Amino acid sequence: MGGGMGGGGVRADLAAAAAVAVLAGCAAGEALNWLVVLRAPAYKAAKAEVERLKRKAEAEVRKQAKAEEGKEKDKGKGGGKGGKGKAALAALQEQIKEAELKLAPYTLTSTLISTMSSFGMVFMLNPHMTGVVVARLPFEPPSFLRGITHRGLEGEDYRECSHAFIFTLSVLCFQTLVQKFAGVKPANPMEQMSQKKYV
């Protein structure tokens, strides 16, 4: 078979096929994601509201920072404004949480679509690649990675790489790249967690 190295050799052609399959799955998933979730007026409105409130909170943080600088220069003024500023910021934070709750179902649906599409191709090709060496690593991976790199392979040559590792790397790389290229990346849970800095 073309691209292979014999019956027991490294099947680099299958490694390439795995990467291409994941890329195709990611692209199809983002197209479906846009059709089902990201172009919906309700999603756009919810996302815009979250972004508006976050900008407002950031402006309030900057305003309070300037007020603190003013107090350093003139300690006899502005004694009662700090409490009002903190109360306003706390109120904004509550509004952000409520707005993110409205956005959460759309974000969850978007994430599920992206994940399922990325792994759809994997499951289709998996029966044809189980037990096949698709690459050879230039080093022996640490023991905690062998469950992925050597998954489904026989023997103890841990430099031999299975399709599972290629699939995992491809999903991590291509999903982010496709989302960035398409400009349709949904809200990231880490970005939502970063809002705790406003509290």
Short description:
This protein has 199 residues and is mainly α. The chain is built from six helices and two strands. The protein has helices at 12-38, 41-73, 81-129, 146-149, 163-182, 189-193, and strands at 135-136, 160-161.
Q: Structural class, judged by helices and strands?
A: mainly alpha
> How far apart are the termini?
61 Å
Q: Fraction of residues in helices?
A: 55-70%
Q: List the total number of helices.
A: 6
Query: Taking strands numbered 1, 2, ... along the chain, how are they ordered across the largest sheet?
Result: 1-2
What is the number of strand segments? 2
Amount of beta strand? under 5%
Which residue ranges are poorly predicted, with pLDDT under 50 across at least 5 consecutive positions? 1-7, 189-199
- Gross morphology is elongated
Please provide the ordered H/E string of secondary-structure elements: HHHEHEHH
Mean pLDDT metric? 76
Brief descriptors of the model:
199 residues, mainly alpha, two-stranded antiparallel ribbon, disordered N terminus
Provide an overview of this structure.
The chain is 69% helix and 2% strand. It has helices at 12-38, 41-73, 81-129, 146-149, 163-182, 189-193, and strands at residues 135-136, 160-161. Strands 1-2 form a two-stranded antiparallel sheet. The model is unreliable at 1-7 and 189-199 (pLDDT under 50).
Layout: helices, strands, pairs:
Blueprint (H helix, E strand, L loop, with lengths): L11 H27 L2 H33 L7 H49 L5 E2 L9 H4 L10 E2 L1 H20 L6 H5 L6
Antiparallel strand pairs: 1-2
